[in-house]
Amino acid sequence: MTDEVGFIGLGVLGSAIAKNLVEGGFRVRGADTSEAARQAAADVGVEIVEDTRAAADAPIVFVCLASAAALQAVAADLARMPGEGRILVELGTFSVADKERAREPLARSGWGVLDCPVSGNRIMALERKLTAFCSGERADYEAVRGALSAFCRKELYVGPFGNGIKTKLCGNILNLVHNTVAAEAMVLAMKSGLDPVAFHEAIAGSGSSSAMFDVRGAMMAAGDYAREGMNMSVPLKDAPLIADHAASVGAPIPLYQLAVQFYRAAQAQGLAHLDAAVVCKVMERLAGCERP
Questions:
Q1: Dihedrals phi, psi of 70, to nearest 5 degrees
Q2: pTM, whole model, 2 decimals?
Q3: Of the four listed, 7, 21, 126, 265, which is most buried by Cβ atoms within 10 Å?
Q4: Per DSSP, what are the bridge partners of residue 135?
């Protein structure tokens, strides 16, 4: 295992991951197009370099980008470098086809490429509670496990390239549905005359709870959604990917499709900049018990 890694994409999630790598004893070379992101990363010990190729001058290179177009551009750029002895770990949530399009030019240049999306939001990332679904060559996975453990509570090898994102898309259904159901339960509790904070304390960690209720239920109980773990932009970006993947394999996903409508309602009500726990506020409005 190497103690030197590159990191491309220092946004909401990437910056939290890079911070944990630094705290785990890794020398992290980071690149991002945003000056604010570069400065914030530098403040936590990331060595900021001038471009993506400079960041990729390391045996392991993490990539955490916001769009498939950005991923393709970075992959095309890095494919111009000799890839022997280097492994690119792609952490994003994109379609299998987009992941493959990024992998192909890199593989031709000798890069090892892993499809390794992570489950969890920024809050969980800062607490090192992410889960990584790593797919690709088993030997490449073994080579990066030490780095993954610096920011993940759990990391798994899930098989050939592409299995990582398939696992993530299926898991995202649970994430979104659990969050929406947590809001539904919280609003029912309030309409029943229960104190929301006391209700959260009673249910969190019990057999009725979920990770979403444990983490976001506290935000719902407090009615405070400013501590952003993940705003609406990410789950709404992922919604077409999940729908298209389900359609491609002929699987109905009616509960997910219903739950995502509350996210769309939050967006329509001007709440999209807040944490996704704000679906609780949408349901309060529906139930006629909206708090100030």
A1: -65, -40
A2: 0.89
A3: 7
A4: 115, 159
Is residue 107 domain-shared with residue 202, that is, in the same domain?
no
Q: Are residues 194 and 149 in the same domain?
A: no
Q: How many domains does the chain have?
A: 2
Query: Is residue 178 helix, strand or coil?
Result: helix
Cα–Cα distance measured from residue 135 to residue 157, given in angstroms and rounded to the nearest whole number: 6
DSSP states of 75-140: HHHHTTS--TT-EEEE-----HHHHHHHHHHHHHTT-EEEE--EES-HHHHHTT-EEEEEES-HHH
Instruction: Taking each helix axis as running N to C, give the angle between helix 163-191 and helix 211-222, from 0 to 180 degrees, rounded to the nearest 10.
Output: 40
Q: Is 281 a catalytic residue?
A: no
Shared domain for 176 and 211, answered yes or no, is yes
CATH of the domain at 52: 3.40.50.720
- Catalytically annotated residue among 154, 168, 237, 281: 168
In a domain, 246, yes or no: yes
> Tens-of-pLDDT digits for all 292 residues of the chain?
469 999 999 998 999 999 999 999 999 999 999 999 999 999 999 999 999 999 999 999 999 999 999 999 999 999 999 999 999 999 999 999 999 999 999 999 999 999 999 988 888 888 999 999 999 999 999 999 999 999 999 999 999 999 999 999 999 999 999 999 999 999 999 999 999 999 999 999 999 999 899 989 999 999 999 876 678 888 999 999 999 999 999 999 999 999 999 999 999 999 999 999 999 999 999 999 999 8
Three-point CA angle 255, 13, 64, nearest 5° = 95
Give yes or no for a contact between 134 and 163, defined as CB atoms under 8 angstroms apart. Answer: no
